[in-house]
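Would you be willing to look carefully at the protein I have copied below?

:::
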Amino acid sequence: MRFQHYGKPPTNRNDWKTIRSLLPYVWEFRLRILLALSFLMVAKVANVGVPLVLKDIVDSFEKQDTVLVLPIALLLGYGALRFAHSLFSELRDIVFAKVTQNTIRRVTIRIFRHLHSLSLRFHLDRQTGGMSRDLERGAAGIRFLLNFMVFNILPTFFEIGLVAVILFAKYKFHFVATVLGTLVAYVVFTLIVTEWRMYFRRNMNEMDSKANTNAIDSLINYETVKYFNNEEYEANRYNNVMTLWQKAAIRNQTSLSALNGGQNTIIAIGVTLLMILASQGVVDGTMTIGDLVLVNAFLLQLYQPLHFLGFVYREIRHSLADMERMFDIANTTPEIRNKPDASELDRTDTTIRFEQVDFSYEPKRQILFGVDFEIPAGHKVAVVGHSGSGKSTLSRLLFRFYDVTGGRVLIGGQDVRDVTQESLRAAIGIVPQDTVLFNDSIFYNIAYGNTEANEEEVIRAAKQAHIHEFISSLPDGYKTIVGERGLKLSGGEKQRVAIARTLLKNPPILIFDEATSALDSKTEKGIQRELENIAVNHTTLVIAHRLSTVMNADQILVLDNGRIVERGTHQELLKKNGAYAHMWALQQQQQNKEPVAAVEHDG
């Protein structure tokens, strides 16, 4: 079996677009940001003042020919400036902490909500592991961007400007020219090499997301891996992507070393030239030892943030690359949206009408063809047919997970596209064929049908679903954790939890999509009777494969290849001796064989 190889990483996008996406979250804290910047500027001024005071201290010692006297005022000033730099830097962090954390929380919440607003089509196509890694890196990128872009790039240039002005005022133009020449060379080199490195960073991110997708997907399907003895295959598949990640990571690190080496070389040349100029000034008598100390201190003070500036710029570019995938998700347009003038669903009339409905998941593959039927309020209609005939698609259209490509779906005469999705789905309850539970307690999973329900109501729903006795027999009762996707429960137990959850919701419209397919015959009959009682006075759509579960429906629709080929009551359809009668005969024949097969197996 061939392993999948992944293509090139995404091409560069407009980084300003990413920054603009972040600005609305930061703008409301503009006063805090200004206050934090004010503290930072004070800290920078204090930091620049330290070498000036240090120069005066050194010169004061040089001027005293006999007895050395400590320059107390200068030393206290030196200490005060050091303390002021530390104090205002910490005050900056205190003021800005709320901006950073609040922005991260709001962005992630917005994306979380947005993900739930996207269509089922998006979620069927998504890769959970890769997407979670993209969001994780994006949040970290926001934190870095806010802290370092605001507090390092602009303030560093401010500090460099201050130093350049002092050097220009106190010394010859050669000093300023050397500083500015070094700065220009450093910045140009950093920009060019960092842009070149971004390809490796994006490639590494792409492989990281792919690797995480494979790992999560494999662990979620743990049982399937074991069933087919494919542990080594999964390890090789994961290793294949990790190998590509490793190559990209090595290139990323190698190019980083080249960048750091070039930056250090430029700084070393600049420092050496300035020290030569300063030393020559001392020798010529135009500069004092204090001037030499001042220039040296300025160099260390200037090039350290300059070197850090290169790191910050590089990491900001990395952060933007990390954030771009997260904001791409945030900017994905929902396929299903409320109309601007959407109204609430009127629940007084729950008559359901499919009016000449056509539907295609893909343009080249149509699923439903002119489906037309009505479920009067309080009635029960069943839809039967072979697998792939389009039965479950009806429930998805009723929930408006997708929009019809032709015709209309109406509830009480209202087109489901004209009402809010929230009011529509609040009016419908479903017991799906494949029940997936949250990795939480049984109580939580039942109460999910109505998060405001009390304990008594949850237990009542469990009793109606014939699962209360089972839950009570467990050591932890309703606090029992069901595991990932509910895998600690059997298929029948999960489905009964799903039934209890829907009963707790108590909506006027019910959908049973193969609701008893995972139950044994005895349990099925008990729950079937309960479901029939529940369906009274509810508008009910039953999607079934076992025809014995829909015999009492007010009307039965036979769906074949997306078309209704027969309709009527159970008895009417048997008299027609058509598709339904044929399916009934096959199922009766199969049920009659099962006891015989069991006896033969026992013997």
Summary: The domain at 15-330 is CATH 1.20.1560.10 (ABC transporter transmembrane region fold). The two ends are 43 Å apart (CA to CA). The beta strands are 352-362, 365-375, 380-384, 406-411, 414-415, 428-431, 509-513, 539-544, 555-560, 563-568.
